[in-house]
């Protein structure tokens, strides 16, 4: 009774929570995982000025982007034709595009954890490839359409993709609701296909938890995101079903703790679950945002900022246009997912196309964007020196417009359709000098 360290609860002090908790998983979350998240939110650094760009870099629209894991200046990009682009944006003008890897849409890319010179890719032609970035030599790890085109009812396309580091397997999912495992050591499929979503629906996203790789998050066209345990991965063994009103374009675990979930749905909503250890029947928050796209666009996906320790910043392109000084622009939005506040909207008066593909650099304050066939690199304004701000910035234009004015072929009309299946297999294209170069002066906002 006379101990000076004794605290009386009647004077406004609340006893320590979860001491007598009946849920050990939640107790572990509070004691071990939650301390990874900094309690003080750092100031956001927004890349809001175009540093460099390549116009018409791809022959079709950009579908995915990936930064090199060790070289900060290398950006990889895939397009609707199945081409793989490697761009050193420090040199700007050099162009390397491998066009003989896939015959149609390159949907997802992941670097090999054992060799940063190799990249895995999943395509709508039903193949998983492993490509040497230096030589462009590619090997096919799995082909779901060995007999070729047999009609739309049997043609399998691969969309979602991720790598389980602990198990050494590449996970891919198709347009019939099945998950496939490919052993990265033997470069062959392991086990049987597992149905993880409604039969006949696309599984467009896969993500392994960064701290517990056996936890797998999937999402698809059946209006669900689902949580799985890979140690007991079989049909019907789902841990949680995260219901949405429409198609789910993407679902990601948070990068630092792996305890939050961020999803993007075509009902113009971003949904956030603050903890995977609590009730997942309904999201913690829903944020209204314009990203309901049509079939002529790559789907919008909200992604975490991998450098934000507070796990509160996400980036996503905007579908609806805004009038900025008489010009209709489609900004790229940075959103605080804790409050729903619009932190920043990034735009440039020279970019009038929609920018659905955006990727934040894992180490630098850089944003890469894919808009139509072009690539853009954004940096914060404060990172530019005064001398650099007065100089011109490099905007490189590769080639001419491939579509001739006047008559258009059927392929031109269907160029941006996600349902097309391209059979053209090109050759490696390496252009060391741009056909045309122009300068881009800083625009007054």
From TrEMBL:
BP GO terms, sorted: DNA repair; response to UV
Region: Disordered, residue numbers: 399-445
Ranges for the WD repeats: 55-88, 241-274
Presence of the UniProt keyword Oxidoreductase in the record: no
UniProt xrefs under PROSITE patterns: WD_REPEATS_2, WD_REPEATS_REGION
Domain of life: Eukaryota
UniProt-annotated location(s): Nucleus
Annotated GO MF terms: damaged DNA binding; zinc ion binding
InterPro entries (UniProt xref): DDB2 (IPR033312), WD40/YVTN_repeat-like_dom_sf (IPR015943), WD40_repeat_dom_sf (IPR036322), WD40_rpt (IPR001680)
Family matches, as SUPFAM superfamilies: WD40 repeat-like (SSF50978)
Presence of the UniProt keyword DNA repair in the record: yes
TM annotation in the entry: none
Family named by the database record: Belongs to the WD repeat DDB2/WDR76 family.
Protein name as it appears in the record: UV-damaged DNA-binding protein 2
Native organism: Gossypium gossypioides
